[in-house]
Amino acid sequence: MLEAVLLGFLFSLFLVFAGSYFRGRLAVLSSLIPLSLFIYFSTFISEIADGKVIYENHEWIPSFGVNLSFTLDGLALLFALMITGVGTLVFVYTSAYLKDHKYLDRFYGYLSLFMAAMLGLVLSDNLMTMFIFWELTSISSFYLIGFNNDKEDSRKSALIALGVTGIGGLMLLGGAVLLGDVAGTYRISEMLSSREAIADSSHYVLILFFIFSAAFTKSAQFPFHFWLPGAMKAPTPVSTYLHSATMVKAGVYLLFRMSPVLNGAEIWHTVLIVVGGVTMIYSAIHIIFRTDLKGILAYSTISALGILVFLIGIGTQAALIAAAVFIVVHALYKASLFLITGIIDHETGTRDVTQLAGLRKVLLPVAIAGFIAALISGGVPPTLGFVGKDLIYESTLHFKDNAILLTIIALSTNVLLFYAGFVAGVKPFIGKLPKKFEKVHLPSPLMWVPPLIMTCAGLVFGLFPGLIETAIAKPIAMTQALQFEDFHLKLWHGFNTILALSATTLILGTVLYFVLKPKHSLENTIAKLDVIAPKTLLLNLSEGFAVFSKYWTNIFQTGYLRHYLFIIVSFLILLLGYLIFSDFSLKIDTSSLADLTIYEISILIMLLLGVLYTVFTKSRLAAVASLGVVGLSFSLLFLFYSAPDLAMTQFSVDTLTVILFVLVLYRLPKYLNLSDSRLRIKHGILSVSFGVLITLLILKVLGETKNTEVTEFYAENAYKLAKGKNIVNVILVDFRGIDTMIEISVLIVAALGVFGLLKLRLKTKDKK
Amino acid sequence: MEILLAIITGVLYASGIYMIMRRSMVKLILGIILLGNGVNLLIFVLGRITKGEPPIIDSAEKVLEGVYADPIPQALILTAIVISFGLQAFAIILMKRTFKVLKTDDLDQLNTTDEDS
Amino acid sequence: MRTLILKSASSYLIPVLLIFSVFILLRGHYLPGGGFVGGLVAAIAFVLDAFSNGLEKTKTILKIHPGFLMPLGLLVAFLSGISPMVFSDLPFMTGIWAENPIPVIGAIGSALFFDLGVYLVVIGAALTIIFTISESA
Question: Where does the record place the MrpA C-terminal/MbhE domain (chain A) (predicted)?
Fold first, then answer.
């Protein structure tokens, strides 16, 4: 399975070098990648249907428990097939849709990157690797949404989408870390056994918060739904692939995957039902106000995602199976509708549903596909949509409380989705063909065959629901259910409440379709409410944040060295001061002062005077000279206190430094008193208090006993191991020889820097 | 003795920081040198002070025994002295070039990256 | 700064300083000294020469630009580091020694060559800095 995941990454990498070959006619060949993956995953169908689960593990960072472990069970297989299957059709479609586009190869690169990331996400058994793939899907979708990067709109939408889903990704990381901490493993399959421990843990609510935030942002649940309609700025293949069939379902997948681990408490169900319910009805109502085909589809997608979250929230076996079947149904019809919209847009140049009509006369195969897609979407028998809708009603009707309310919400959503499907799939094709569209002609089959294939699949699966049942529904139920009950998917259940509900949906939907016509005036009405939309609120928030951070930065990033230093030193003083005074016990050993010699005292006085004179003199030359005195005092000091090597080195360096200063000094500006006295006093107080703290710190450290282990090692072994008697030198050239080597390299760099600064002259034309 | 050295170290730190906070570039470099000396002394004092017992093995002996100065801070400071020479040279030349090009040694006038201002 | 006193003094001082620097380098393993100090002393010798006799003359004495001493020194230090890998199959920077010690210098080992490398780098770096500055000053 690792190979399958890597294939997409490798292909996108390959396109970086060989992209130019895939820009022209060969572009369609790139669809062989998803196709081969689709075939590869299809070979597992029978095995998985038998209830087997395939594990694969590759060690990556075993010390952190982060490994590339993959699981192929019913749920993963469903998503893998959907990703590769829809992927194949989208790849084919793109080759015609973006024909001769300058950056077609780039587009394929992003697409296959996305596909690989998505495959990795659904196959991962390890939460950490899942997080990585999750973020990769966000990143690749950022590039895809912003593919038309010369348009400001696209760039903005891409940023919003990345922001929202990126925050969700971080939430997933948080949830993963907490879960890993509570369960002691990052492997989801192993977490199942600590289900109770997780539900009882004090972090349970926090874990739910993190996982929900991740899922809701990715799957565009209210109030994070707004990035999805914006993301429709992307080319249609992207909307089809990412924003209806696969990526937005990643959140649903996460909930599905974690449901057996986390659904132990009531809060899991309540939150999901409420959020899913609000999302599905809220965005379904939005559909009425839209005239852009893609806008309609975007909102109906959000609504469908809401249904899925809602069903997972209900969490009974029937509801979970309904969700699984609905995922398939939705992928089939929504992807087809998107592709059809793309064709209409491509051929007529508009997506305004009020203008489109009668296109069946020029785009007959597309019209057929659209019609079937609308039937599936509306849940008209004998399509798979009907099966899906039945299952939804079955699960809401049998829920333990509020069954009526839930059913009503589901019913109204379904009616509106029926309407959406017909507006998008049927309306553009019926009626009288306007004159301006008479010259429209059928595009290459590469574009209209894919939607036709998908809609036909929806028909076939509807006629033979057993196919879905054995291959998908049952294996998924097995991954979820604690106790598995046998069930059968059927078209015909006999006369009962569910059938009545389905019929009501169809009738109401049809009525709505004929009564309600998409109008621009409606769209303008809703636009007035944008002020309180979550999107506006969030954008205002981010703007406020930008203002705040600018303000904050202006305080701390002034560009004046002394401000930076002031802040750093004040902070250090506070920190050090707190540490020293919170445990203040100074043991000062004054006995050593007794045997001070006159030499030592005079050296110290010389040193002190040198330092003070350097600071306070007004002449540059005097400052440099007194700095030389400081250096010489240092070398005497080292000589007194048993460091002859240091004394010699300090003496030579001091000589060279003074020479250096003298050489440069004539070229330097005169000393100026630039700061006023108030500032000088302020800095003086700060510096002195810092100096006092350092002194106190030293005295405190001197009061502790010294660890001499390392020193003793060197004293013991300098001659035995390194045949040297000057231990300082032995340390430098032998024990720590590599350090010394790096140090002389640094010296070389400094010398080269000086050489470069002085010898390299810019040519006059480079200066400008 | 250590007390006096600790006080001297504090003085070096204080004067180094004070000089770095001045606006003149020459003072900045003097400040860096003073601060560097202060750090050297800090390391030296923390290694404890020993008078007249350098860490050198007697020609007749094979192992260093008895009272001796700690060689580790000395090794550290030795390289620090040489490296700080390189640093000082580089800083001085950088300052010289800056002065030549921009005709100012006021650090406050260098806080913009725009070439024309 | 070309005074007669400095000039005549330097003609004696410089050879002495150079020999002294080598002496410091060689005894470094046993007594105070070593590559860093030795290199600095040698650099001071050349700087003194440059002050008394002029930079051009010093450069002709040196024959090559002091900058070339830096990579040379680094190479010597590096080769001494890998010599145990070549000769004795020991890890990088392990000290190895010749069998018989030589009078005055003592045992010859890879550490001495490492110190020689340090010596060369320090001379090269210090002289490059000082010469470059005095040329452009």
Answer: 680-759
